[in-house]
Specification:
Length: 398
């Protein structure tokens, strides 16, 4: 059926098209099932239900009802606008390909194994995107992520640029910061590659949380020299660190109010006689450019202090004051490859959570022998004792 004008399916009406259906404009307030190819030269408007079992194309679409993509591809060559309670459901054999997408609050795009494609985003698999006035082609308004936030990067397409994942809170000016299956991964098949000289940020809404853990796996590019400590303190960071050329983690601390990089080269032990922590268990090398190392940072926004574990079990810093001064809440995770070694860095398996990470409970750690896991003690009380001390590619949080 080819109509030179418009087709309207009124509310309460049902239309089932088994062959080709073509119109200038199509307005469906009722129920329309297209078992053949559907072509709308101008505007597709759906306030009822549209079910697609074959390829469909429209120049523009306004959706306040429901579109079910069962098979093949729905292509919108300009703008797909979801309003009201608009919903698009993508089945396992379906694909939604839109040049631009606008989603108002209350709308959603959900997939049960299908694929969503826009110029800014390619997502295969099972997912649900909820509308929050998100414009897929415009990353100027990055959607801050609520806690807990976890990402292993295996659900994204290989080669997906992190610059185009604003809907998931990621922000970078470098298109080559991307998901890859060609490099190493801490788990699964994919990680994020950061070429030398690049930076990646995750926007986080941590306003309602006073205790936050940042847990991630890093394969760094080992750098020859430290960044400027004063600049990183002035940026208002609640935690900042870098990995030196020997593979040691260096944290930014305040030494008599002066920002200073301090190597976290030794893990904590307990002095029973003095009842205090001693940082006297050396690492041969914490990090290597050949493999991933787990880093777990705890930040307390009530007393503005941080503590650090390396490898989930080695406590290398406890209750250190935020180097950038007091902060109200967690807002950003930032990782940077300083570009001094012409080597890629890799990030994988990031978790930001207001509860104890899953590694607590895997192995009881209680160096002060008080019957409570040390990481749980730090989480709830900020320290193991009243003692505060530390001995011994840049990533920072603020």
């Amino acid at each position: 059926v080819i109509v030179s004008g418009d087709i309207t399916v009124a509310s309460g009406a049902n239309l089932i098209a088994h062959g080709t259906l073509q119109a200038n404009n199509l307005d469906s307030s009722g129920s329309l099932v297209a078992n053949g190819v559907l072509t709308v030269d101008n505007l597709l408007s759906v306030s009822g239900t549209l079910t697609l079992a074959a390829d469909a194309t429209a120049n523009q679409a306004n959706v306040s009802g429901t579109i079910n993509i069962l098979d093949d591809t729905l292509t919108i060559t300009s703008l797909l606008d979801l309003t009201g309670s608009g919903s698009i459901q993508i089945a396992a054999d379906g694909t939604l390909n839109a040049d631009s997408i606008t989603m108002a609050g209350g709308t959603q795009i959900a997939s049960t194994g299908g694929t969503l494609i826009t110029p800014a985003l390619t997502l295969p698999g099972t997912f649900t995107i909820h509308g929050s006035t998100w414009e897929a082609w415009d990353k100027s308004s990055v959607l801050a992520q609520t806690l807990p936030y976890a990402e292993d990067f295996d659900s994204f397409a290989n080669g997906q640029s992190m610059a185009n994942l604003a809907i998931f809170g990621w922000d970078t000016a470098y298109l080559d910061v991307a998901v890859t299956d060609a490099g190493p991964a801490a788990s699964g098949a994919q990680s994020v590659i950061l070429p030398d000289g690049t930076e990646l940020a995750l926007h986080v809404d941590g306003a309602s949380h006073t205790r936050v853990w940042t847990d991630f796996f890093l394969r760094p590019a080992l750098g020859p020299g430290p960044p400027d400590p004063i600049a990183y303190a002035a940026a208002g960071n609640g935690f900042a660190s870098y990995v030196d050329h020997e593979g040691n983690l260096n944290a930014l601390i305040l030494d008599n109010s002066v920002p200073t990089w301090l190597p976290l080269a030794s893990a904590a032990s307990w002095d029973d006689e003095e009842e205090e922590l001693l940082f006297d268990v050396p690492f041969e090398s914490q990090f290597s450019s050949a493999g991933f190392t787990r880093v777990s940072i705890y930040q307390n926004f009530e007393n503005n202090t941080f503590s650090v574990y390396v490898g989930a079990t080695n406590l290398v810093a406890v209750a250190q004051p935020f180097p950038g001064g007091p902060l109200a809440s967690y807002s950003h995770y930032i990782i940077k490859n300083t570009g001094e070694t012409d080597t890629e860095a890799y990030l994988d398996d990031i978790l930001i959570t207001a509860t104890l990470p899953a590694f607590v409970g895997d192995e009881m750690i209680d160096i002060n022998d008080n019957g409570m896991d040390d990481r749980e003690e730090i989480h709830w009380f900020g320290n193991l004792t009243t003692y505060t001390g530390v001995r011994g590619s840049v990533f920072r949080f603020r």
